[in-house]
Each structure stands twice: as C-alpha cells, then as structure tokens.
Design a protein that fits this description.
about 400 residues; alpha/beta; two-stranded antiparallel sheet; 15 helices; 10 strands; about 50% helix; globular; disordered C terminus
C-alpha cells in the first residue's frame, strides 16, 4: 500500500504572520493525531511562512519555535524582531556613492538641447540614487544559518530528509522560483528564506547567482500547488493575512465602528495588500480542487473581524505573546467548530482529531504568571477563570517548592 504524502504550506504575512502561524501550528500539533508537523514529506513556505517551514523541515517543533521567537527571553538563541528594522546602511551607501554620477548625467541630459530633455525627464535619472529598500533583513539569513548549523540540522536543501521549497520572485522577470527544486537546491536555505521575505520597498532585493530576488508573495499567496505537484495528498495550509472587516468587528463588540481611513496611510495600505492577496489566494484554492481532485487541502486562517491580529504591535513582547496565544485559542475553537466536517477528510489519511485535547479549556501556550496575566484580554472565552487558575497553580507550585526547601 502506497503511503499518502503529507505536507504543510504556509503563506507570508511579515513578523505578525509568523507569530500567528506558530500559535496555530502548536494548536494543530496538539490536536491532530497522526500528523507529524516535523515529519512531513513536503514543505512549502512563502516569505515569513518560509521562515517557519524551514524550521519544521529541520525538525524544529512548533512548541520550540514558540519558545525561541515568542518567549524569547527564555531561549538560548532568541530572535529579536527589532533587527528587522535595522537601516539598510550598505544599500544607502551604495546609492549615495552613485549620486554624483547620476547627478552629472541628469545635468548633461538637461543641458544637451539636442535631445530636448525637459527638467522632469532629466531629474528622473536621479531615481537610481533612491535605495531599493529601507531596512536590512540580512539578520534573517544570518540567524537561520547559525540556527541550522547545529548537529541534527542542515542549511542544505539536498541534505534534508524531506522536500522543502522556499518561494521567491525573480525581480527582473516577475516569475516565481522554488528554491529547493532541482536546479535551485544548491542555494543555502537561510539565503533562500532571506530572499523570499524581501518585501519590495522595505527590504532590498537579495542577490543569488547574479539575479535579484524579492518576496515570494508577489506572484502567488500560498504556492500550495508546488506541494500538490510533488504528490501531497493531505496538505495543511495556514494563511495569516485576511482583509479586516471593521463593520463586523464593530458589531461583534467594539463600542464604535472602526474607521481604517482615519488611521492613516499604513493602515490603508495594509488593508489594500491583504484584500489583494486574499482574493488571489481564494482563486488559487478553487483551482487546486479542480486540478488535484485526489488531494485534500485544509486551510486555516483568521476570521475577518479579528481586530486582535490586525492591530497588534509585533515589537511589543506582550503583544507578541497575546497574538500567539490568540492564534492558538482561535485555532482550537475552529477545530471544535469544524470537527465533524474535517473528521472524514482527515480519516482518509490516517489522521484523527483529539477531541479530549480540544475540550480542555484550561490549555494555554504558557503558564508563567506574567504570560497568563497578558492573556486575559484576548482569550475572552476563557475569561478571568483561566487566568486566575493559572496564577493560582503557579503560586501553589512556588509555595510547595518553598516548603520543600525550608
């Protein structure tokens, strides 16, 4: 009997997307029996999703990712989101060095009346002095290179026990490239992830073998088709970016209707970007059903009225913890809601839903007293009872330890 191939495909979404995906994956790992998230056959990652899938392919469990990236002060080798907004000094310097030549070219074009260049046309030549990105995401590659150099892990696609595909976009052709596929598997995994997460405007393109690569989401959102073409019969997908429905959020509990326009340019652009990529992903999901009828694709994503995700500050420790806990609890709730629908689909691949785990409403990602207090606001269904229970258990444990040593 031929074993069904299982896979994971994770979309992008920046640091917030990665945080949401980690919380979701912890919930899924606990609740899906027979699906090993670090033992799959195929992984596909785009942008921040590539950061997560490269870890899964290297045997880094979702719980460990939570410890490294969310509870980072407890990790031996933490990743700090602040490094993602380091100025791209090398890019600035390179462009600044080119300014004199560009200015001379612009002046010559304007003064050379034989070509009848206007002032605006001539000044356009100075565009080459503008940086291709504001921030340096090189630390992503450096961190992963270090992370994958320890025994038992690898930074080489060809040495993995599974198939890993990291999707980036060739800037000069506008086509997507699957690093890890034949012909593109000699690139270090860390460098491929750095290229896949180089969002144009924020980060400069990443040069690989003389070509410039940027964020893999420019062409497609999820790229699940890569895993399906490789033979995946059960594919678990997570997409953390959905357009925010402010009116629905208002009806759900906000005192006044949220106006995204009032929040200015960043919020308007975030909503626009989410709407575009989500619409494109939905079209892709319908195509997957038609082109791969023998495969089952299970998608998890936030609700459209999820204000917690849309307005989270990723650079705040408390917000990062709250968002990850929020994703964890929301995914558990979604599994409970979809359990009857998913049961026969998952059973075809030897996977079952652990209803006992899902029924345990005392489960949280972290039981530290500090973290439980931060969870009170987003985990509304659990309310104060869970927070107080967690705090009481921690205080009881400390008291017992004190009695034992006293």
């Amino acid at each position: 009997m031929v074993r069904d191939l299982k896979g994971v495909a994770l979309a992008g979404g920046g640091p917030l997307g990665a945080i949401y995906e980690i919380g979701t994956l912890v919930a899924l790992e606990e609740s899906l029996k027979g699906f090993d998230f670090t033992g799959c056959d195929i992984y596909v990652g785009v942008s921040s999703g590539a950061f997560v899938t490269s870890g899964l392919a290297n045997g880094v469990a979702p719980r460990e990712m939570h410890r490294n990236f969310i509870e980072s002060e407890e990790a031996d080798d933490p990743f700090e989101p602040g490094v993602l907004v380091r100025p791209a000094l090398r890019e600035f310097g390179r462009r600044l060095a080119a300014l004199p030549a560009l200015a001379g070219s612009a002046a010559h074009a304007y003064l050379d009346r034989s070509f009848a260049h206007g002032l605006i046309e001539s000044l356009q030549r100075l565009g080459g002095a503008l940086p291709a990105g504001l921030f340096d995401n090189g630390r992503i590659g450096e961190y992963l290179a270090e992370h994958f150099s320890v025994p038992g892990r690898t930074n080489d696609f060809r040495k993995l026990k599974c198939k890993l595909f990291v999707i980036a976009t060739n800037l000069d052709t506008g086509t997507s490239v699957a690093f890890g596929a034949p012909g593109h598997d000699d690139v270090p995994i860390s460098l491929a992830v750095q290229a896949s997460s180089a969002l144009p405007g924020l980060y400069p393109p990443v040069e690989i073998a003389g070509r410039s690569y940027v964020d893999g989401a420019l062409v497609k959102t999820l790229h699940a088709s890569v895993a399906l073409r490789e033979g995946a019969k059960l594919l678990i997908c997570v997409n953390p970016l959905v357009p925010f429905d402010a009116e629905a959020a208002g009806r759900r509990g906000h005192r006044k209707r949220l106006s995204l326009a009032e929040r200015g340019f960043p919020t308007v652009m975030a909503q626009t970007f989410r709407a575009i990529i989500h619409s494109r992903m939905r079209v892709g999901m319908e195509r997957y059903e038609r082109l791969h009828p023998g495969a089952d694709v299970v998608l998890f994503e936030p609700a459209r009225d999820d204000a917690e995700l849309f307005f989270t500050n990723m650079f705040s420790y408390s917000d990062r913890r709250r968002l990850c806990e929020h994703a964890y609890q929301k995914t558990r709730a979604e599994l409970r809601r979809r359990a009857d629908e998913l049961k026969p689909l998952l059973a075809r691949h030897g996977v079952t839903i652990d209803r006992e785990v899902l029924a345990d409403e005392t489960r949280v990602l972290s039981r530290s007293r500090r973290t439980v207090r931060l969870h009170r606001r987003p985990v509304r269904k659990l309310g104060h009872a869970t927070a107080q229970l967690g705090q009481a258990l921690d205080e009881l444990e400390q008291a017992l330890e004190g009695a034992a040593t006293g």
